[in-house]
Amino acid sequence: MRDLVYTGFLSLDGVVDSPGGGPGEEHRSGGWVVKDIEFVPEAFALKGEELADTTALMFGRRSYQAFAPLWRDSEDHADYRDLPKYVVSSGLPDDALVDGWGPTTILRSTDDVAALKRGEGGAVFIHGSAELARRLSDAGLIDRYHLLVFPVLLGAGKSLFSTADKDKQTLRLRESAAYPNGVLKLIYDVVR
Fold it and tell me: How far is CA 12 from the centre of its chain?
């Protein structure tokens, strides 16, 4: 069985929306990861550490359409180029997939994601994709969270966690670190 891991940047009040800013990101606080927070390289080391465990990437439609054209040509994301990618979308046509960014499969439903998890292979990492993460968490499909929590309160934006009335979900801390710029690394396993 494969692990499904959500990895992302999170504000202290749970917002994952528009951490990088840039074109197409209309959040009024877009770019909050790099605004007013001192850059400390070790606070971002988690992203490099994850590569050893990443055997595939998963995105929702909007995150895929935002990341694929940029990451395909980015030297910072060169290690992702040839990894298999999965896009979870009921409406994305096959001809909308970005050429030259490794093998990409469209999964049409949460059931398709569950079937992928039951298959052979290593960890699949979800980047961005807040709506997808909430849906997969509600379905009990996320196994681990890799979070870099930033000392900002945004008050608006897409939340990583669902507000649905559902049973309590317990997380077990696997690893943590605090950095001088106030960023926290928190890695949690989902307890089942």
Answer: 16
Tokens of 107: 């999964």
Token pair 């669902």 is found at: 162
SS3 66: helix
pTM over 0.90: yes
CB 7 within 8 A of CB 126: yes
Per-residue pLDDT tens over the stretch 58-107:
999 999 998 999 899 999 889 999 999 999 999 999 999 999 999 999 99
User: Distance between CA atoms of 80 and 57, rounded to whole angstroms?
Assistant: 8
Indicate the CATH number for domain 4-184. Answer: 3.40.430.10
Q: What stretches of 24-116 adopt beta strand conformation (E)?
A: 54-60, 85-88, 104-107
Closest C-alpha among 28, 4, 1, 7 to residue 17: 28
**The residue to which tokens 């998890």 are assigned:** 117
For the chain, domain boundaries: 4-184
3-state secondary structure of 32: coil
Read off the tokens for 81. Answer: 């180029």
Taking the alpha carbons at both ends of the chain, their separation in whole angstroms is 14
SS3 109: coil
Residue labelled with tokens 């317990």? 170
Measure the CA–CA gap between 115 and 126, rounded to whole angstroms: 16
